[in-house]
Write a structure and sequence with these properties.
By secondary structure, the protein is α/β, with parallel strands linked by helices. It is 24% helix and 25% strand.
Length: 279
């Protein structure tokens, strides 16, 4: 399935959800043309269980390497057949949320599986349950290892990232770390104005942000973050989109689409007039 087609399905899935979070204070960047070395895990892993083809539903898993032990959920769609390639979504929660809340509150576990996706719901560590995108730290190692183990355990042909707030932040960093990401969806993301990595290849992008968001303001914060429109334009530049975006205004807000981009990718944003800092 082409990245453009899958992104359209992912857009319908993501924009239909309705979970919120409790306010982030930092997260990840817009793309740049600079490069950095991916985080390279050096530890051994304990892979998750490979469930039989007849099993469907949401199951717990864990990864253990060195002194670290991290948890996640994986949703297997009904009718999963290891002889057929399936797309994977890595669904990343916001600060002070759990993987379980995000899986059910966003509707990802139900709607995603119904559309034929395998979905991983990783859990951030610590009292704040917040992702730390700093290079070389455990969160990025954990998420890279999780993708490696899932692609080894299941027949996966495409990988998509989706995140809310800080989850969107670390998802964007993973586009610098993991080769073969087909698409990335960011909901109410926070985008600092300084970055030190660039995505490995052109990636289809979906972004949604409310004009009423008082946690991650849509216009950014001077000296700290860039605005949603600037973030989207940076992705369009990175993806070498050669046309101005098409704009459509509805009762819900404005949709902007850059369609003529490298690698048959697309950049699409939803500026919403309601919802606040929410999925």
């Amino acid at each position: 399935m082409a990245p453009r087609v899958v992104l359209a399905l992912l857009a319908a899935l993501l924009v239909a959800g309705c979970a919120g979070d409790s306010g982030d204070t930092t997260t990840a960047p817009p793309p740049t043309t600079t490069t950095s070395s991916p985080v390279t895990p050096t530890s051994t892993t304990v892979p998750p269980v490979t469930y039989p083809a007849a099993a469907s539903g949401t199951f717990p898993g864990e990864l253990q390497w060195s002194d670290s032990r991290r948890f996640f959920l994986v949703t297997i769609p009904e009718g999963y057949d290891p002889a057929i390639a399936w797309p994977l979504i890595v669904n990343l929660h916001a600060e002070r949320e759990t993987a379980a809340f995000h899986a059910t509150g966003t509707g990802m576990a139900d709607r995603g599986a119904a559309r034929g996706y395998l979905i991983a719901h990783p859990q951030a560590a610590g009292a704040e349950q917040a992702w730390d995108p700093a290079p070389g730290l455990e969160d990025r190692q954990f998420l890279q290892l999780l993708v490696m183990e899932l692609t080894a355990s299941y027949h996966i042909d495409q990988i998509f990232l989706a995140g809310m707030s800080k989850g969107a932040g670390i998802a964007q960093w993973l586009t610098c770390d993991i080769e073969g990401i087909s698409g990335f969806a960011a909901i109410s993301g926070w985008y600092p104005d300084a970055v030190d990595c660039a995505p490995i290849q052109p990636i289809s992008i979906l972004g949604a942000h409310s004009t009423l968001d008082d946690v991650t303001p849509i216009d950014g914060s001077p000296g700290a973050t860039i605005g949603f429109a600037t973030w989207a334009a940076a992705w369009a530049l990175f993806n070498d989109c050669d046309e101005a975006p098409r704009s459509a205004v509805t009762a819900q807000g404005e949709t902007r689409t850059w369609a003529a981009c490298a690698g048959d990718t697309v950049v699409e944003t939803y500026t919403l007039g309601s919802g606040g800092h929410s999925w």
